[in-house]
Here is the input.
Amino acid sequence: MPKLNGVLKFLKDKRKFAVLFFVFLIIDTVVKSNYPWPYRFVSKPPVILLIVFYYYYNYSASKTRNFTWVMLALACFFIADLLIINRENTTLLISSFVVYTLAKVFLCFRFSHKFDFKVSRLIPFSIVIFIYTVGLIVYIYEGLGNYFLFALISYFISLLLCQFAYLRKEAVDKKSYLYVLIGVLCYMVSEGFTIVNTFKTDLPYQDFCIMFFYATGIYLIVHGIIIEKRITPKYIL
Here is the structure.
């Protein structure tokens, strides 16, 4: 029991956990960059599992539904991480993309709220994200082949996730809002590296960037959810 209490205290200490998490993340990026893919089955699972435990022991959900959406998303990320390790297997690769898309859908449900928002503020942000998405799809179009429709759907969900994260601004405190939004943007950077590497060409430092931005994005999203404080919007349309 004393050892268990010590572990729980460590998980609840946000600074110590951050150090532990990034140590495991760096280890996995080193393995990803320097060793054959089977070694990732040892180095990669602990990264997301740490986030699962961090969320489970720190977040007190006011609504059970919100807690469930995040746990479902994290479960999907964990499964997809295992599926994508062997990228040479096309079936596993596509299956991982499907499960990643489900994870993003669950996060969209978690970030949705019933408060009104300023459409004028949403439009410029949406245009920037839309241009990024379209530009990326056009760049890798020739390499997509039969996967074009799937890639379009996947990035459409990413666009929705980014919008939902952005629309939290008037519903939650500033720190939570920024952590989640930056986390989503980091995830999209990793997603961009992944899809270009998979369907178009290799990129400089791709192995490091894919995993670092991906895991950092998930960590920031979950941390933002944990510290979230709901507030009453200043305006109603």
User: Anything to note?
Assistant: The mean pLDDT is 86. The radius of gyration is 18 Å. The chain has ten helices and no strands. The longest helix spans residues 119-144.
